[in-house]
Amino acid sequence: MVLTIAVIAVSFLAMNLLFMGGAAAQLMATTGGGVVEGTVTTEAVEGSQEDLNMAEVADKITKMQPSSTPLATIFMQYAKKVKVKSQRTEFYAVDIKPFSDKTADEYVLASVDYAAITVADVSIFNVDDTVMFPDIEGGDGQPFVGCISKKDNASSAIHIQAMNGVTGADTTTPNCIPGIVTDSIAVRMGPAKSELDAQTAPFAVMPEKDFNYTQNFMAQVEESVFQRAHKQEVNWDFTDYEEMNIYDMKARMEMSYIWGIRSQFVDREDEERKFTCGGLASFMTKTINYTFSTGITNDIWVDWTQEIFADNAGSDTRFLFAGDDLLATISKIEGVNKQLEAKETEVKWGITFSKVETKFGTLFIKRHPLFGLAGQSKNGIVLDVNHLEEHEYFPLQFTTLELKKSGQRNANATVLQKVSTGVLRYPGTHAMIIGE
Description:
Oligomer: single chain
Radius of gyration: 32 Å
Distance between the termini: 91 Å
């Protein structure tokens, strides 16, 4: 009997709402957070309450002022995400075996076709490798080339036999090893094996294990209930406070991702253990130095681009984020200036880059405003974004604090939190540019 009455009551209410038509629809819209008809899907929820799902909040944060915080944008939106289970994250990084080295001592011309040449890193060479010295002229006018018959790890020497040698010091002996000055480039080339050789030196580049700490980045904004109710001359509310705090958090997180120092310590005041992440600069194996007062010539620029792209397993495109002074200096290079004036740009991840073609690859250049704010205006960073990872202990989280309900304060509060760090894979594909 009770059930029958309940069914009749619900039916009666439904009929009344049907007859009320538009008024009923208005009543439903104003008494709830939104009406979703049919199956509740993420698309429907975001259409009704766009801030309800965390992914939407994270996406908004990622897209906020991307040009002001380009690295944070790239790490959040593009870099491979690696979930970690503690604030210490371990990873392996590897560079390819170098193709060139430099001589460590001078070799004086004698009258021999076989001699020991001391090099900086003997480990990259193997017996039977041919070695070219591009700055040393051979007897045929081409760069001198020798073949390694022996190597001595203890003395860091390669014993080479001349292939296109010069006339010896006695002015009569042909095919001698020419004089080689200290810091001459030595490029390892293909091995020369005999007919009976069935083996060669085994070779494998082993990755090096390293670690970093994930850092607990947070931002919080509060507004008192009285302030929210107060009449204002302009429309500036809680959402605006949130946006400014989020930008501040992204900017400071970006600085930590670039220049942070890896550490863990106990705070002297609150005696809590804290972790800070090591920035990309501390993991870079390649640094390009220049003298700011003398500027950058076309020749220096060519050398830069060669160093950025050559001798590594990176992409044909790299991204240069430059401080204002560095960008101004680069813009004065004749070959670069013409391309910048052509205003050929590309938009990636919501960031507009100037596109500069070089003989070795394509550079996408972007002014980075935080370099100037951090006192790094003469400097820049070159990244191969395909070899970036973001390790997350806790991904981006957006939490509403009910301070009024808990009796702490008569205020509304939200907290944004992310525990993470940036990681370089193949460090040799990236570079820091330092102006002195």
